[in-house]
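Hi V.,

Quick status before I head out on leave. The structure for the redesign project is tokenized and pasted below; the design run finished overnight.
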């Protein structure tokens, strides 16, 4: 009798394991990602989108989903995400919207890279569950109304174009679940969005090593372009007579030259654009990161990357960084555009326990946490489509 009962128990456990396995298979999605049309992955021209895409792919693969990435020719995925299938498209790049007039019309060049990527994604997408678009542009958003495959948009910028914002408003009225944002403050730029889907961002923690260096130089990381406000960080470093290491691609040469002239010789150290591994090694030796954007930063990848290395951040209380930094615990939030306020907080930055910084990233912004949020959002989009 006992033997029969234990056999029955084992049988029930087997059924439970089998049904869990079946459920997992059912929940696995085939996702086709459209990359940024600004440059190939690895060029730095796509800004934070490049890293975000890589960590998401890694997170999704880790959860057993199938991921295809449609990207410009020469794109490279980081090692952890290179099991995704990469489809290359050739064509003429789009101009970034933050460097155009807000009221500009949409411009689609002949042999458009963006149009080519959309065409390819739709072709592959016929056999997939969903297309996930990373391109901040008009055409993929408009396609939402014109294809049967669900297409979700991870909006990577605050409102930078009148035409795109109007289109989002129109498409949102018909497909309210198809848009997600990195931060609440970014979403608030799109005033017509009620209860925005906010999914933060994610980082592959294994790629960032914690370093406990309180006496290193100051750091600034980002595209060297006016919306990033490097001049304010340079002013502060100059006032303190401290070295400021600057990492990132120079998108605007004349702007970079102007900043160079603001500083005494030896203050600014142009370090160029580095791959994540080299960047984090050097960044981790810095005593603080200065983050001084002039626009409503959607998220601020570099802030989290610094925290992941144990580097506290002094940032303007504006855009995504104001939702990331815990004032007094992982850094300080200075009055926007107020250089004296930056200086005051830099004086006390050594009070921050660098371990708090790393801990925040582990608890809030791992690629696994990010992928979980994205999967739950994409399931909603599929269901409501
Ligand atoms: N970055 C990099 N190497 C560098 C400097 C920057 O890989 O030398 C990357 C950084 O990792 C981040 C991106 O550039 O992912 C900048 O993203 P952020 O969200 O801070 O700003 P965005 O450029 O999107 O406005």
């Amino acid at each position: 009798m006992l033997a029969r009962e234990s056999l029955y128990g084992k049988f029930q456990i087997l059924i439970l394991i089998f049904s869990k396995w079946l459920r997992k298979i059912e929940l696995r999605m085939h996702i086709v990602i459209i990359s940024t049309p600004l440059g190939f992955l690895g060029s730095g021209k796509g800004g934070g989108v490049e890293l975000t895409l890589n960590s998401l792919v890694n997170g999704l693969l880790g959860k057993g989903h199938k991921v295809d990435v449609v990207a410009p020719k020469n794109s490279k995925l980081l090692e952890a995400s290179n099991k995704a299938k990469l489809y290359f498209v050739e064509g003429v790049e789009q101009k970034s919207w933050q460097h155009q007039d807000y009221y500009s019309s949409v411009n689609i060049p002949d042999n458009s890279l963006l149009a080519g990527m959309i065409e390819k994604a739709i072709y592959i997408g016929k056999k997939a569950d969903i297309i996930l678009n990373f391109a901040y542009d008009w055409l993929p958003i408009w396609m939402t109304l014109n294809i049967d495959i669900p297409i979700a948009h991870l909006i990577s910028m605050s409102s930078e174009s009148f035409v795109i914002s109007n289109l989002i408003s129109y498409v949102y009225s018909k497909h309210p679940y198809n848009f997600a944002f990195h931060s609440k403050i970014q979403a608030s730029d799109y005033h017509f969005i009620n209860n925005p889907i906010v999914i933060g961002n994610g980082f592959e923690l294994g790629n960032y090593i914690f370093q406990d260096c309180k006496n290193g130089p100051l750091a600034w990381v980002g595209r060297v372009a006016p919306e990033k406000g490097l001049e304010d960080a340079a002013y502060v470093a100059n006032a303190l007579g401290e070295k400021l290491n600057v990492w990132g691609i120079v998108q605007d040469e004349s702007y970079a030259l102007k900043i160079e002239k603001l500083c005494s010789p030896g203050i600014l150290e142009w370090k160029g654009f580095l791959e994540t591994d080299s960047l984090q090694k050097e960044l981790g030796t810095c005593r603080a990161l200065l983050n001084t954007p002039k626009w409503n930063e959607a998220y601020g990848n570099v802030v989290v990357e610094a925290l992941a290395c144990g580097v506290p951040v002094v940032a303007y209380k504006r855009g995504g960084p104001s939702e990331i930094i815990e004032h007094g615990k992982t850094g300080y939030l200075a009055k926007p555009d107020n250089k004296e306020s930056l200086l005051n907080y830099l004086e006390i930055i050594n009070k921050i326990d660098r371990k708090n910084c790393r801990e925040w990233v582990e608890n809030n912004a791992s690629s696994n946490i990010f992928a979980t949020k994205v999967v739950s959002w994409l399931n909603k989009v599929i269901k409501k489509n």
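Above is the designed sequence. The chain is about 40% helix and 15% strand.

G. will cover questions while I'm gone.

Best,
W.
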